[in-house]
Amino acid sequence: MRLGGFGGLVLAAVAATSTAAITPAASPAPAPTPVVSDVDRQELRERALVFPVPQISPDTVRDTYHDRRAGHAHEALDISAPRGAPVVAVDSGVVTKLFRSVPGGLTIYLVDERRRYAYYYAHLDAYAAELAEGQRVARGQVIGYVGSTGNAAPDAPHLHFAIFKLEPEARWWHGTPLDPHPLLVPSR
User: Fold this and answer.
1) What whole-number distance in Å separates Cα of residue 133 and Cα of residue 115?
2) Which candidate, 67, 79, 48, places its Cα nearest to that of 186?
3) Nearest 10 degrees: CA dihedral of 178, 147, 108, 77?
4) Which candidate among 9, 41, 151, 184 keeps its CA 20 to 30 Å from the CA of 178?
5) Measured at the alpha carbon of residue 66, what is the angle toward residues 149 and 17, in degrees to the nearest 5?
């Protein structure tokens, strides 16, 4: 089972620690890890996802998905931008979780309307006014602002953006990561 974004890793660890004392001895088998296929990639391409930081030209962003970070795969796209640059919903969906984590700082988990994919935004400086869990947002709607919260260098504001395919239970913190770069940046 893969977890989407490093915020998910923190939440899973917290959940495991806080429920250990009440978890029965025989736990149910874990759900199968969803397989990301070419069909998934094609579906997301057909949705024509909006680039999450409109102020930045997508073709200037380097693919950081396969980079290593603190001993693990990055599995996300880092988009450098001025502090306070608007961040938009790449797809229409529901704000499933607003969360502050040690590594990700201010984060947003947005789940698409079909509950198949989650979009993870981290290191935000602030959320858009009135943004709330459970709120439906439209593709291109401002949902936050670029920052350097969490473990981001204070002098390097950027958006840490990830996409993952949800498990059949559609839990916002569990899924299989997809490289967002080829889905957001036009081919050269």
Assistant:
1) 15
2) 48
3) 0
4) 151
5) 55
